[in-house]
Request: fold
Amino acid sequence: MDAKELLAAIKQIEKERGIDREILIDAIEAALVSAYRRNYNIDSSVPVHATIDRDSGAISIYVSKKVVEAVADPNTEISIEDARKKTHTDDYVLGSVFMDEAEVLTKDFGRIAAQTAKQVIIQRIREAEQGVIYDEYAEKENEILTAIVNRVEKNGVYVELGKTDGIIPFNEVIQGETYNQSDRIKVYVLKVQRNNKGPQVVVSRTHPGLVKRLFELEVPEIQSGIVQIKAIAREAGQRTKVAVVSFDPQIDAVGSCVGQKGIRVERIVSELHNERIDIIEWDPDIAVFIAKALSPARVLMVYINESEKAAKVIVPDNQLSLAIGKEGQNARLAAKLTGWKIDIKSKVQADEEMSRFEQEADETGVSFEIEE
Reply:
């Protein structure tokens, strides 16, 4: 391959594989150094340099040689006479270092050397490709991607993400969800990490961020910033609560997320295989926000303990089970959404508790007087 053919090949690889020209040239230069060492049995301690002219494609190899009186090893030594003759100067003295240009490229680079160069180039190109893929997907962390299910193995679900593969670890899989080959699903990018086989993209179906990104895709008002998601609490595969707020008094935050006839939220529910989604209007008043977070239950009263970030909530007697939810799920999600501990009592329970308190106060003689 002549110099022009080499530059043309580099340009083609750059175009087809998206690898920077300088990375390719660096890889070829490293390959030439490796091939030269192999072919001429040059020890790794001896500096060898290869350069490719960026304009002409001309290749040069230089070997660092010690200037000596009498040459014992021509691969690592040069006589002082030859060093001075090649440079037309008397600058070199015994023991100094001379960078000697090797005249080997067209003469006696053997089959082994050529094969070594080829292997190094392939390896460097593979590393460069992996670097490009890593950088591309590292920028997608915390974003949502469309994945195609490839296979299910003992450590997770493997999916195709375009230029690379990803894995959904089983602890990031929605419980009860089945995955068939070629299924198209939305996934949330947790992290991108390097391993011996190249970049590995770890994705999730359970992360609350998946719900957030799905709403951003479906709701233009969120994309524009008019409506904002303030908080999300999720038990993947079962139920999610989303708190939203509107910065335009003419725009209904909840209505925007639900969509006309519920079409927007229905698309998200469908993507999550019928996971229930409660959309709640966020409120700066924590008592009001807690009451809304317990929706669909109706709340009578909320007592706030600021120092402990705890709230006692009173609901109608017939709303207690609804407020708590099946296996405590509604109350648990409300607590996650608001960041407050929530103790829920029915009206009867609250009245009984108050009566008991008043009775104990009478028996102990303890009383509280409120100044007018």
About this structure: Confidence is low (pLDDT under 50) at residues 364-372. The chain has four domains: 3-135, 141-204, 207-282, 297-372.
